[in-house]
Amino acid sequence: MVLMGNSMEEKEENKYSIIVPTYNERLNIALIVYLIFKHLQNVNFEVIVVDDGSPDGTQEIVKQLQQVYGEDRLLLRPRPKKLGLGTAYMHGLKHATGNFVVIMDADLSTMKQRETGASIVTGTRYVKGGGVHGWNLMRKLTSRGANVLAQTLLWPGVSDLTGSFRLYQKSVLEDVISSCVSKGYVFQMEMIVRASRKGYRIEEVPITFVDRVYGSSKLGGSEIVEYLKGLVYLLLTT
Q1: CA distance 212 to 226
Q2: Among the listed residues 122, 111, 114, 119, the one whose alpha carbon sits nearest the alpha carbon of residue 170
Q3: Bridge partners for 138 per DSSP
Q4: Residue 179 belongs to what H/E stretch?
Q5: How many other CB atoms are found less than 10 A from the CB of residue 215?
Q6: What is the enclosing helix (H) or strand (E) of 171?
Q7: How much is the CA Rg of the chain, to the nearest whole Å?
Q8: Kind of pairing, strands 74-76 and 16-22?
Q9: What is the pLDDT of residue 182?
Q10: What pLDDT score was predicted for residue 118?
């Protein structure tokens, strides 16, 4: 994870707001926060944890971490219940003070903007240098198939529509997110499709997706059905 400028002045003028939605991530959140702070020591950033009322004590862990990293750099902005991924990013964006926003998730499934001037830089598992570790064959086929289907129908101009590691210019994120209607797993796909339709420059960087360290995936049959419905909706409306 690299967020670098070309000079000390650029590092000082840019601030990165990292939004991390959580639900039952008590066993993962400490590690992801540790890795962010470890690898971004020379970067001006804040981490905004948006927790949807996790019953496993995720918020208590974040409060303990705030004592280590500071409440000004590790922000906890909880919501009362599970309200969806898209609205979690919207909620986090309201509290972001950076001029760039990084969106990611907390299950340790984990940048080029300076070089290209891109409005969005998105991580992809499906180019040279990218990949997936820890998934069985069925999970790999499901993910790859979903992306191929979406690329065929929507032509978004990117290879990985469902990844959750992206860097946005804050103004671009505010514009794109205001036109999105999806709230669940389709949200990531809708964001990148609408950004492409609006003419924003999107660049890709390879990432290696490592399956969650603790807990089980929240992806199930209902999410797959939701994805297919979202695909049809975007085909008809974009």
Answers
A1: 22
A2: 119
A3: none
A4: none
A5: 13
A6: helix 170-177
A7: 17
A8: unpaired
A9: 83
A10: 87
Helix axis angle for 186-197 and 137-154, nearest 10°, is 30
Question: Residue for token digits 């840019």?
Answer: 14
CA 18 to the chain's CA centroid: 9
Confidence at residue 9, expressed as pLDDT on a 0 to 100 scale: 44
Residue 234 has which token pair? 């975007």
- Given a contact cutoff of 8 angstroms between Cβ atoms, the answer to whether 91 and 166 are in contact is no
**Low-confidence residues of the chain, pLDDT below 50?**
1-2, 4-11, 108-110
pLDDT of residue 74: 98
The DSSP letter of residue 199 is T
How far out from the chain centre does Cα 172 lie? 15
Q: Is 66 left (phi over 0), alpha (psi -120 to 50) or beta?
A: alpha
pLDDT at position 213: 52
Q: Phi and psi of 232, rounded to 5°?
A: -65, -40
SS3 of 3, please?
coil
β-sheet with 74-76: strand ranges across: 74-76, 45-51, 16-22, 100-103, 166-169, 120-124, 202-206
Q: What does the pLDDT look like over 197-228, one tens digit per residue?
A: 999 999 988 887 766 555 555 556 777 788 88
Residue 161 CB contacts under 8 Å (≥ 6 apart), including other chains = 146, 147, 150, 151, 154, 188, 189, 192, 193
Beta strands in 115-173 (DSSP E): 120-124, 131-133, 166-169
